[in-house]
Amino acid sequence: MSISLPLAMLAPLLLLQSTAGGVPGSSSAPLPQDIGRDDTTLPPMRRRIQAKPTIEQDRLSVCLDNSRRDPATAIVNASTWLAEVTGAERSFPQQCLGMAYVSLLRWDAAENAFLAARNFKLDDDHVNRARLAGMAGNAAMAASHAQEALNAFDLAIGDAEKAGDTVLAGTLSADRARALVQLNRDSDAETALNKAITDAPQNPTGWLLLATLERREGKLAEAAEHIRTAGGLAPHDPAIALEAGVIAALAGDDDTARKNWHAVIDMAASDSAEATNAKAYLAQLKQEDQP
């Protein structure tokens, strides 16, 4: 028996972003994973060049840790730091300010700080400019400023492409798609997600979001194929299992839907949105199975 799932329960998934791994500053911040501190997407030569942290980078690391534990103090310290430095070095305290504002859920201030941090970077530091613009875009998304987010993601993708970092550009394209959906530009979002899975095929988020969009458009066969790919890349991600269950249910495969939703309950925290929705879906199936 297939179920008719309420639109209110289905629509939000595309707008969610997994926070697995976390972000310095807030475990629930809708920002790319460790994007402010991780250098794994840098080309090997640049990683070697940056292997020895500078004094400013060490100071940033301490400030980012403080932004998570004591954001108010981090803001004071970063503001003092900002007054002490000039030129490209001003990017570091601006980044710390952004993360402190994230911890306080001050999304507009975070967006502005991340954009300032991006703009202070040297013109040829394309990778870090891309990362910081991406952080600004996700802060704008958290504030429900979809057009501002889109503008920031466009900046970020342009920077990533200048750096020749295809994977980073693909990851940012998935973020860009979320902004496009908020703006009711589903066709453009689908184009962005196809770029995401092409440029960053190992990132399960792109496959998940594409499957969700296709499911919303009634393309269940395509959605099923893409959610299987997402599940293969991240078998323990409850958001993927939840979406897999929704797609299966709409296709009339109740057994597969139940299997996926029970997996969500096993994997996710009991008070998480994924677990709550999975329980609601299972209850609806049970109700419809009754004579």
Automatic annotation (TrEMBL):
Residues 25-47 are annotated as: Disordered. InterPro entries: TPR-like_helical_dom_sf. Residues 1-20 form the signal peptide. Keywords: Signal. Coiled coil: none annotated. Pfam families: TPR_16. This is Tetratricopeptide repeat protein.
